[in-house]
């Protein structure tokens, strides 16, 4: 009986540890969605990105600079409504995970729906970037939603 109780306790601790991992991964993916899509704050998005994701963000910064628009004003950001929700998590390996988000970007009279896949990687280098980080993101446009 004691062995069974000890085994159950160990299994419970492992399950709780795994839940923390899922929470940390999802938290990083949500933070990226918030800063990149909702606030359109590319310098902040750079802080949770590396690899191909970082290259995409840097390219977006370059395009904004070329257009003379380095950062959207708070007024411009408040004129549009951006919401997102997790559709599913896709765990690929122990050091990789991906989240599929439903993203709605609205401004009267048309709203755009997108699916966004955020791929995360585990870092272990210590310092500011230890833990989970966005390594790539991709978007799929869905048909525009027209208002009444």
Task: Explain what the structure shows.
The protein is α+β, with helices and mostly antiparallel strands and 148 residues long. The chain has one domain (2-146): Nuclear Transport Factor 2, Chain: A (Roll). Helices cover 43% and strands 37% of the residues. It contains four helices and four strands. The chain has a four-stranded antiparallel β-sheet with strand order 1-2-3-4. Strand 2 and strand 3 (110-123) form a beta hairpin. The longest helix is centred in the first third of the chain and has 37 residues, at 2-38. It is globular, with a radius of gyration of 19 Å. The termini are far apart.
How are the elements arranged and paired?
Blueprint: H1 2-38, H2 42-46, H3 51-66, H4 74-78, E1 81-93, E2 96-107, E3 110-123, E4 131-146
Antiparallel strand pairs: 1-2, 2-3, 3-4
């Amino acid at each position: 009986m004691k062995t069974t109780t000890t085994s159950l306790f160990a299994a419970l601790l492992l399950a709780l540890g795994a839940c923390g991992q899922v929470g940390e991964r999802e938290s990083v993916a949500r933070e990226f969605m918030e800063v990149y899509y909702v606030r359109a704050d590319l310098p902040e998005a750079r802080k949770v990105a590396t690899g191909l994701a970082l290259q995409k963000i840097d390219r977006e910064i370059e395009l904004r600079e070329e257009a003379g628009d380095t950062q959207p004003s708070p007024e411009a950001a408040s004129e549009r409504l951006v919401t997102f929700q997790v559709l599913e998590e896709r765990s690929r390996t122990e050091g990789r995970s991906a989240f599929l988000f439903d993203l709605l970007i609205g401004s009267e009279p048309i709203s755009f729906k997108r699916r966004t896949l955020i791929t995360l990687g585990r870092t272990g280098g210590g310092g500011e970037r230890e833990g989970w980080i966005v390594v790539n993101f991709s978007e799929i446009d869905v048909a525009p939603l027209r208002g009444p």
